[in-house]
Every structure is written in C-alpha cells, then in structure tokens.
C-alpha cells in the first residue's frame, strides 16, 4: 500500500517543526554546569574534555575565541563575535567563546557579565590552570596571550593572536566560508 502525503501537509510540517540552527552542534560533556538566573555555562576542568573541538574536521565553520572578563581587549571585541553568532544562526557556523576566567570569579564576575550582555554565542569555561600543557594543542604559535581565536573549517585552520575589529572578523569568516563551501 502506498501512502501519499499532500504537498500542503508537507509544507505545514516543514514550517511547524522545531528548527535547529544548521551550525548548532553539541559540545563535549562538561565536568559541571554553572547555573544562575537562567544562565547555564558548561565548565570543562581540563583541556582534554574540549580537545575534540580542535581536532574534528567538519563542514561547519568553528570560530573559537579565548577570552576573559578581566581582559579589556577581549571584552572590546566580544560584541563582534556575538553579532557573528546572531547573524550566522541559520548557517553552518558555530561560535564558541571559551572563558579563561579564574575559578573564584565565575559566580561573582562571569555570570553577571553574561547576564548584562545577553550573549547569543556559546560560552563555556575552561578551568585548566596548566595552560602550558595545552596551548600548543590549540596552536604551536600561540604565546598564551588573549584574546586569541582559532577558526576551523574542513581541513583549514587559521589562528590569530589579536584583537579583531568587526570588519576583520567578518572578512576572515567570509574568506573561510568561500574557500570551503
């Protein structure tokens, strides 16, 4: 027996099913969650937990930014990353902001910061004080200074240890998207 579905029903189903952004991908399982007033931030106690983000070749462009609330240049460029996450929500782009804030400042500084800014980009905390053990895994050229950003798309890796302007970030993302559609 063949079942035929009307094109009108198919259209209805397409527009009423919940939509998941094309670039949304699950993160590795965190050690714990920091949660307060509706804000939930995954905490990774060790770089090894996040390592899969840096090794998996994917059709999704990953924009991974290392930052902290105490870093003025990081805070200055953060709106550009959040804007990128908002604009590319339906595209195969994943913006991940990895906070390197100190453990003692997470509840008193990071959560209020996130609440004030209503960031749409994915924010996670890397709680691994032994940066010397994992900086080279991100990029051997990284001195450890922040802000630092890694872009991954297919087999291409671009690492930048700099503060971005809006135009610089968008230009780099566009070039990564064009090169590996």
Main traits of this protein?
181 residues, alpha/beta, Glutaredoxin, seven-stranded mixed β-sheet, globular, disordered N terminus
Please describe what this structure looks like.
With 181 residues, the protein is α/β, with parallel strands linked by helices. The protein has one domain: Glutaredoxin. 35% of the residues lie in helices and 23% in strands. The chain is globular. Residues 1-24 have low confidence and may be disordered.
The helical percent reads 25-40%
CATH class group: Alpha Beta
What's the number of structural domains?
A: 1
Instruction: Give the strand line-up of the largest sheet.
Output: 1-2-5-4-3-6-7
- Rg, please? 18 Å
Q: Can you name the CATH architecture?
A: 3-Layer(aba) Sandwich
State the order of secondary-structure elements, H for helix, E for strand. Answer: HEEHHEHEHEHEEH
Rough outline: globular
CATH superfamily: Glutaredoxin
Class per helix and strand makeup: alpha/beta
Count of DSSP H/I helices: 7
Nearest-integer average pLDDT: 85
Q: Roughly what fraction of the amino acids lie in strands?
A: 15-25%
Number of separate strands = 7
SSE inventory with pairings:
Blueprint: H1 7-16, E1 32-36, E2 39-44, H2 47-50, H3 52-55, E3 61-67, H4 72-87, E4 93-99, H5 106-117, E5 122-126, H6 135-138, E6 148-153, E7 156-160, H7 166-179
Parallel strand pairs: 2-5, 3-4, 4-5
Antiparallel strand pairs: 1-2, 3-6, 6-7
């Amino acid at each position: 027996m063949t079942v035929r579905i009307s094109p009108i029903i198919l259209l209805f189903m397409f527009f009423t099913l919940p939509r998941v952004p094309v670039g949304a991908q699950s993160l590795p399982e965190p050690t714990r969650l920091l949660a307060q007033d509706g804000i939930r931030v995954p905490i990774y106690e060790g770089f090894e937990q996040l390592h899969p983000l840096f090794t998996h070749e994917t059709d999704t462009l990953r924009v991974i930014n290392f930052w902290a609330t105490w870093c003025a240049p990081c805070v200055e460029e953060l709106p550009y990353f959040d804007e990128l996450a908002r604009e590319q929500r339906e595209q195969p782009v994943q913006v991940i902001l990895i906070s390197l804030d100190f453990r003692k400042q997470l509840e008193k500084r990071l959560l209020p910061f996130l609440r004030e800014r209503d960031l749409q980009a994915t924010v996670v905390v890397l709680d691994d004080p032994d940066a010397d053990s994992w900086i080279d895994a991100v990029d051997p050229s990284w001195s450890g200074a922040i802000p630092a950003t890694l872009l991954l798309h297919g087999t291409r890796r671009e690492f930048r240890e700099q503060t971005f302007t809006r135009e610089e970030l968008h230009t780099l993302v566009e070039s990564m998207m064009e090169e590996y559609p």
